[in-house]
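haha ok so turns out i had the wrong file open the whole time. this is the CORRECT one, sorry everyone. sequence first:
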Amino acid sequence: MNDDYRYLMQLGQSFPDILSAAEEVINLEAILNLPKGTEHYLSDIHGEHEAFFHVVKNASGTIRRKIDDALSDTVSIKDKRELATIIYYPKEKLARLKSAGLLDEDMLRVTLNRLIKVCKLICSKYTRSKVRKSLPKSYAYIIEELMTEGPEMKNKSEYFDAIITSIIELGSAEDFIIQISDLIRRMAIDRLHIIGDIFDRGPGPHFIMDFLCDYHSFDVQWGNHDVVWMGAALGHIQCITNIIRNSLRYDGLDILEDGYGINMEPLEKFAENVYADDPCICYKVKDKDITQDRHMQLTLKMHKAISIIQWKTEGELISRRPEYNMDDRRLLHLIDYEKGTIKLDGKEYELKDKLYPTINPNDPYKLTAEEEELVKYLSLSFSQCEKLNKHAELLVQKGSLYLIYNNMIMFHGCIPMTEDGKFRDVNVYGRKCSGRELMDELDSYVRKAFLSDNEEEREKGADILWYLWNAPDSPIFGKSRMATLERYLIAEKETWTEVKDPYYSLIKNDSVLDGENISVSEKAVNAVFEEFGLDGETAKIINGHVPVKHKNGESPIKAKGKVVVIDGGFAQTYHKDTGIAGYTYIYNSHGMILVAHKPFTTTEEAIENCYDIASELVADENAKRRIYIADTDTGAKLKSRIEDLKKLIECYKNGTIKETRKD
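then structure:
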């Protein structure tokens, strides 16, 4: 008995006769001819939860466009804005309308009818089965009935009106509006792709992760700011110190304390004791003035304390993992503590901070007894944080270093390359890897950190999470070094240089090569497509990580349209550099759209004043023909299933497999 026969026998348990198998073939072939679902790509959210929620709720402007299509010119712009706000924030907006005495029977009836029209349009590209599975249980039958209304259903108009009347009279209208609004938002985005960096800088990464825990369909391509939090969840001290330092630098300690319930009091007491008379002026909070405010002064002391511990513990890890090739990041032994200088590349620089009471010049990477105690406490606190572990496990489950989906390859940073466009060899624990093999090897070690039964492999995996955060060969960091110490302690900016991986310059270079009618960028990108088995005619690379300076005219479209960099600066700290507040790339059945978002104000203003994020169209690439499910990865799976079912039917017909239907 061969494997094909065994498989068909198993398939026959679900489809026991010709009729049931034929019905499924007809159903699947019909699905192939439906338009593909809408995919949304976002990147580098960096904790800006309110802006993220709004962009997802309004589906990057898709819902407003659907309102315009469904209601045409029969409804005023003001009423359309209000309806959109109800869809985005139904509970909150209804409460305000009710408080203002505006939520009377007439308004409820009008709102219900308009929502049904929008819902019908937005669900029209999906099978009835898929829509039915998404319907709220409490109103599933009613919504399904109401969505069958149309011009051809005139004989049922009184029936539909009676349903609406009953909903209102029974006091269920508000709950019904909430449920159907949720359905509209749910169906507006078929799949959400997040190209890395959910964490750091902004105030609410934990809120975003809570939201994703219940989201219907998404994936994450890990960013360097994600993996360092994943490492922290394992109690990895080098990851933990980086997280705390970043949180202090961006005045976001409440994310750890309030968001994850990790008590920072031991660090506070340690810093206050050790650096009591130290102004710690090198350890500023980003974009905030140093004042005599006790809270700010204490923040600076904590910032210095954790920075010193970070540099010490990282020095130990780098020494322990020489294969990481990061010895240039061990800098504490290069400091002359008496003179207050550091020697780099043969040149001596004066340090802005000359007070280091916890560093032994003869053994600079050794922790003091108090630091050792603090490190143990922090490692235990992070590893035992239930919420952080839940979020890290979700990132392992839904995440990866790269994803190939519908002939798109998504990754946060780069594929490490040499100057001449070849994939660079990287040493991963003694094994030289490059290109796809490198990405797969690093991805596997991330999973080993969480899932391996082997303690040594778990430790290697945990260290790889830190490596991915800041190593020169990390595909999601993509720079020669992370010059944190230099930026903190040395005034000369020549020491701050962080050289980007050649990948980034290669994808920008459209000049024609000598003797070849192909640009440098196309050659590099085509190498990626070939390496990952993509159809180069239609494939694209979707990148994040490097903010696009939109205000300076920089285009997010690289390599003659084959690369799209969608980091438009979601985080407020990047707005001044990019001039916008993020991009969304949208891939629907008509083609691809790239929109740039203006800064979001507040959720409160969005609800109260029907404020929506203003977005401008950056690029619009129409497909030569409409794209159907048959053209997607899902379609390929369905076609394979259809072929198997046809084989099963043939086996039934020739008697190789006996039908088992019950009469």
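The chain has a mean pLDDT of 91.
again sry for the mixup
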